[in-house]
Specification:
heterodimer, A: mainly beta, eight-stranded parallel beta sheet, 48% strand, globular, B: 253 residues, alpha/beta, Rossmann fold, six-stranded mixed beta sheet, 8 helices, Fe-S_cluster_assembly_SufBD (chain A)
């Protein structure tokens, strides 16, 4: 596997700024002028949100691996991938590699568990999905409001492979969660979903690049988000259909709610198509909570705050409902509900 | 008892209600009839506290409370229920969840004990049966994909479960065929009680064949311009609202 991660926390020269088109809305350089001091060791405290679903685990605490960093899945397995940050004003990087053998089935439960304050975290994942393998990846990201984090996943899906991911983010001072995904061979199926729920001055950036390199692949993407207060949500979704990737079916949707006049949503959907026989569609909407629905709910006795939370949940829950694995879906649902 | 005194309500800068005075004693059903644009729906929204409907003058007293000082949800907990002319669709919130959330929010506000799920389901099963509603429909998001008749039945079902003491029915007959009208009216009539007041807002007399009012009031130009017994509705049906409309000036172009 070739590493394609360019950010190096020990080298400030490697931090992208808004001059780089792909980082236009998430100017890392602005918030991070110098390389942070390395984080000290940290303890692994609580068992993490997905503990009850069992399986194997890859755990990083302030970038240091507690055990293995690589995992090869065969048969039917569950892997919990935990990036734990507990630092104050320092930085750390962690990298995991996961390969899923042909025909295997993996439930990948990833959590970014942040404590402390003002830390900088850079997490990377390389994930290979072999022919006919099936992966469900669910990512819960919770970090302090003054943390900075960049997470990158490079995913390669081989012939007939199935890859589904759902990222659930609540933002930080600057939070970027990037997925670079290749339909490396024919007939792969990809679902690349996500949602964000942002309060205060939090920022999150869900960026994805999905490349269809061979024919008959499908991609379905549904991203939903809510920005309150002065928060800022960014969605950059690019789907590239390369020459010869005929029969591609790609659908992208991003729908967001702005819950305050000072909140901001930046969306940049891109479809780049070099093949002829393809079906591609994208939809992008940004709106506000339906005032007549709010009044209707209040008229029936539901206080305004509760009505807003209920409508927000109803808006976002569609993404959760698409999580294939029931156990993971219910954990995600409770996790989200607790944060509304 | 509902006491509305000299109520003025504006929407934006536009005055809609201009000194409306009306008393509805508990146990009575009063019909509000009037031409289009008279302010009928505004009255319903003003009583229930819809944002944007600003009371600029006058007072509304309900069961001894200054209704205008309360938030919409507080008014609901005090027993105010507005049945919408066009009930709102709420995608993503199942009807059952919605009604239970509303019921328990009202009970919390009144300091009563909440209703647990099994007891609630039992109540809903009984109430939906009386309204000839398919119970499975209640598992779907509220009003989404419901027909006009189903939405109105859903409103009546909510009334039956929330047990309000002041019912305001805004054009409940609109969009209903004759069978649905009968079922909905029977549902409303079943809710008549000595401690409940009802305000039935309607353009047509038809609904009053099914829901018999004690009093009929004509709302025109933002005020009550005539009041009478049920025979007033029949008279309006025969003669129309013309004589209550502002006179057209002779010779005006």
């Amino acid at each position: 596997m070739s590493a394609a991660f360019n950010i190096d926390l020990t080298d400030a020269e490697s931090f992208p700024s808004r001059r780089n088109e792909a980082w236009k809305y998430s100017d890392l350089k602005r918030w991070l002028r110098e390389a942070p001091q390395p984080s000290p060791t940290a303890a692994v405290g609580a068992p993490g949100p997905f503990y009850d679903l069992g399986g194997d685990a890859i755990v990083f605490a302030n970038g240091r691996a507690v055990g293995v960093t690589d995992f090869i899945a065969s048969g039917e397995q569950t892997l919990r991938l935990r990036y734990i940050s507990d630092a104050v004003g320092t930085g750390h990087s962690a990298g995991a590699r996961v390969a899923v053998r042909a025909g295997a089935k993996l439930l990948l439960l990833e959590t970014h568990e942040g404590a402390g304050s003002a830390y900088v975290a850079h997490n990377t994942l390389e994930l290979d999905v072999a022919a006919g393998a099936e992966v469900t990846r669910v990512v819960l990201v919770e970090e302090p409001e003054d943390a900075i984090s960049v997470s990158e996943a490079h995913v390669k899906v081989e012939a007939g492979g199935v890859y589904r991911q759902t990222i659930i983010a609540t933002g930080a001072k600057l939070q970027r969660i990037e997925t670079r995904l290749s339909h490396f061979a024919q007939g792969a199926h990809v679902q690349a979903d996500g949602l964000y729920l942002l309060n205060g001055s939090r920022h999150t950036d869900l960026t994805s690049v999905v490349r269809h390199m061979e024919h008959d692949g499908t991609t379905s993407q549904l991203i939903k988000g809510v920005a309150r207060d002065t928060a800022r949500g960014v969605f950059q979704g690019k789907i590239v259909v390369e020459r010869g990737a005929d029969g591609t079916d790609a659908r992208m949707g991003h729908h967001a709610l702005i819950a305050s006049e000072r909140a901001e949503i930046d969306a940049k959907p891109e479809l780049i198509i070099y093949a002829d026989d393809v079906q591609c569609a994208h939809g992008n909407t940004v709106g506000t909570l339906d005032e007549s629905a709010l009044f209707y709910m209040e008229q029936r006795g539901i206080p305004a705050e509760e009505a807003r939370a209920l409508l927000t949940q109803a808006f976002l829950i569609e993404v959760i409902d698409r999580i294939e694995h029931e156990g993971a879906r219910e954990v995600a649902r409770e996790w989200l509900t607790a944060r509304l | 008892m509902l006491k509305i005194n000299n109520l003025h309500v504006s929407v934006g800068d536009k005055p809609i209600l201009k000194g409306l005075t009306l008393d509805v004693p508990a146990g009575e059903v009063h019909a509000i009839m009037g031409p289009n644009g008279a302010g009928k729906s505004t009255l319903g929204y003003a009583l229930s506290g819809r944002p944007g409907y600003e009371a600029t003058e006058g007072s509304v007293e309900w069961a001894g409370e200054d209704l205008l000082a309360l938030e919409p949800a507080e008014r609901a907990a005090k027993g105010v229920f507005l049945s919408f002319q066009y009930p709102i669709e709420i995608p993503g919130v199942p009807a059952l969840t919605f009604v239970r959330t509303a019921l328990n929010a009202q009970k919390r506000a009144r300091g009563e004990e909440e209703v647990a799920a099994p007891a609630f389901l039992k109540l809903v099963r009984e109430a939906s049966k009386a309204l000839k509603m398919d119970f499975d429909m209640l598992k779907r998001p509220l009003n989404v994909g419901f027909s006009g008749g189903e939405k109105k039945r859903m409103e009546i079902l909510q009334m039956a479960l929330l047990e309000p003491s002041l019912l305001i029915l805004d054009e409940t007959d609109s969009g209903l065929d004759i069978d649905a009208l009968r079922i909905v009216s029977e549902g409303v009539n079943a809710l008549r009680r000595p401690d409940r007041a009802m305000l039935v807002i309607t353009h047509y007399q038809r609904l009053l064949d099914y829901i018999k009012p004690d009093r009929v009031h004509v709302l025109a130009g933002g005020r009550i311009v005539a009041s009478g017994g049920p025979e007033l509705a029949l008279q309006l049906e025969a003669e129309g609202y013309d004589k209550y409309l502002p006179p057209v000036l002779e010779g005006a172009a």
